[in-house]
Write a structure and sequence with these properties.
Blueprint lengths: L45 H12 L9 H10 L2 E2 L17 E2 L34 H10 L14 H22 L12 E7 L11 E8 L6 E7 L7 E6 L6 E7 L16 E6 L43 E6 L19 E5 L24 H24 L25 H7 L10 H4 L2 H8 L7 H15 L18
Antiparallel strand pairs: 1-2, 3-7, 3-10, 4-5, 5-6, 6-7, 8-9
The chain binds a DNA duplex through strand 4.
DNA sequence: CGCGTTTGACCGGCGC
DNA sequence: GCGCCGGTCAAACGCG
């Protein structure tokens, strides 16, 4: 790791990212009450969005005050939704609106902390299920969920740890961005996000059932794009699958819409996996410290199959931290063992199409009566993070036989640039292959200290933190009032 | 025979 | 208006 080179000057972050009240880019104390004393159109409207989030998560609002306990409870006790509110666009089919827990798995372990049991990846035969696509692949997936569950990568040195830590922070930022996909896009009012997977198999098993409805050659790619729809009755979620023209070893899967139903009952539980948090990046400073569970470094997940100390999705203290996602055994919990190692079929989120409103909200659309408070960006934000992690974990648990970290890079996935939404190129500038986090990037060849020393006269200059700050501002400005409410969705039935 | 995939046709948006 | 392009439809196809 001594490949010394002069650190390139860091690209200036988008101007709106820079916090105006603090030079400490990890200081989010500017997100205080007064921060939210903006016109209602410019603040998060948890009144509209909160119930959706809570219900989607299967937890009570009251419980959600304590995300840790709430999520724990949600795993064990699915919540019955209240009767659906009348909606001219909804078609009431059944009354069975029981939202399952986000990850219908382990009985006692919290979300994202699935303890290997009968689905011990080490027990599954490693028959290559990646050779065939489509129907056959899925059939095999249902039957087996092959994978070795190994932790790829080697033990790293301090530099690696630093890099990995930074990458984790990048992942955090991307997850923040990903949460924003919950918002409807302005073009089609459907949230989108995409995964880039390194896989021979184009079909990404994610636990849901899909029906292919089209395939088309697209411009600038020798590979076709496939179109799928969720087969659940009343579910309008779609996904597109295409192989990257730049790197045929990578497959991009774009999801459009959100499932308001559980996984098909005939599918087995997801493979064991675990997400745990890293404590580097305080996203907000809105709450006093609380004893943290599942922080990285406190055992890293119980080792050897994950005993459960690594609890992802549990953002105690509202300190949203970097999140690492693993399959299989957690091992030592040392980040250095995993970052950047993208084994075959690993799931790498590199692509998040955000619906971030950068125009100060102002949607003006919603139920009315929305209220806002300083608590919104903490609790709700935690829930949003969990939603994203669910999506991540779902794909990860069903499709990734190995255990690389998720490396998240927000970028545009649709070319549908819309002035009313965040131009994710702002983030792409930082996360593309030529940038800080790419293979040839600054962090790849230089330590964080090197970067700091060269990039700022002030010690601890932290672009990452700045970007985080900017993302947070986007979140604040993000008006979720347009988010779809589950009651407006058609109930779900499996055909 | 049922169900999911394939594949050419069709449609709408967009730029010129 | 025309052509391009992405997305979707739907009849034909094929596999179990």
């Amino acid at each position: 790791m001594e490949g010394k080179k002069t650190p390139p000057p860091p690209p200036p972050p988008p101007s709106f990212y820079a916090p105006t009240t603090s030079t400490n880019t990890n200081d989010f104390s500017f997100v205080n009450d007064s921060f939210f004393e903006k016109p209602p159109s410019e603040v998060v409207k948890v009144g509209d969005f909160g119930p959706f989030l809570y219900e989607w998560l299967g937890i009570d609002d009251e419980d959600a005050i304590d995300p840790i306990n709430a999520v724990d409870a949600a795993v064990q006790t699915p919540v019955n939704l209240p009767p659906p509110s009348p909606s001219p666009s909804s078609i009431i089919l059944e009354s069975s609106q029981v939202l399952p827990p986000p990850i219908p798995n382990s009985q006692n372990s919290p979300v994202f902390d699935i303890i290997p049991s009968e689905y011990d990846p080490g027990n599954t035969n490693t028959t290559d299920t990646t050779k065939t696509a489509g129907r056959k692949r899925r059939a095999e997936s249902v039957a087996g969920y092959g994978g070795d569950g190994r932790v790829s990568g080697d033990e790293g040195d301090e530099n690696n740890k630093t890099k990995n830590r930074l990458k984790l922070r990048a992942a955090t930022m991307a997850k923040i961005a990903a949460t924003l996909t919950i918002q409807r896009r302005s073009d089609n009012n459907v949230p989108k996000f995409a995964f880039l997977t390194e896989s021979e198999d184009e079909y990404l098993e994610d636990g849901y059932r899909w029906r292919k409805y089209g395939q088309k050659m697209v411009r600038n790619s020798p590979f076709p794009r496939s179109y799928y729809r969720c087969t659940a009755v009343g579910c309008s979620v779609k996904k597109r699958v295409e192989r990257s023209p730049d790197d045929p070893t990578h497959v991009m899967t774009t999801y459009e819409g959100l499932h308001y139903h559980g996984l098909p009952p005939e599918l087995p539980p997801p493979r064991p996996f675990s997400i745990y948090t890293d404590s580097d990046v305080p996203i907000t400073a809105a709450k006093p410290p609380v004893a943290r569970r599942g922080s990285r470094g406190s055992g890293g997940g119980g080792g050897g199959g994950g005993s459960g100390s690594a609890r992802a999705g549990h953002h105690a203290n509202n300190t949203i931290t970097s999140v690492n996602v693993e399959n299989g055994a957690i091992g030592s919990g040392d980040d250095s063992a995993r970052a950047g190692n993208h084994a075959n079929n690993s799931v790498t989120i590199v692509n998040v199409n955000t619906g971030v409103n950068t125009c100060g909200g102002g949607s003006g659309v919603g139920d009315g009566g929305s209220k806002h408070s300083a608590a919104i960006p903490t609790d709700v934000y935690d829930q949003q993070m969990q939603i994203v992690e669910q999506a991540v974990a779902s794909v990860q648990s069903y499709s990734a036989p190995t255990a690389p970290m998720i490396d998240v890079t927000p970028m545009d996935v649709t070319d549908n640039h819309d002035q009313s939404f965040l131009d994710v190129d702002h983030y792409g500038d930082f996360f593309s292959d030529e940038d800080f986090f790419g293979d040839e990037d600054l962090f790849g060849d230089l330590s964080f200290n090197d970067y700091n020393a060269s990039s700022s006269s002030a010690s601890g200059e932290d672009l990452v933190g700045k970007i985080c700050t900017g993302l947070l501002e986007d979140i604040i400005n993000f008006s979720p009032s347009m988010a779809p409410h589950p009651h407006d969705q058609q109930p779900f039935l499996w055909p």
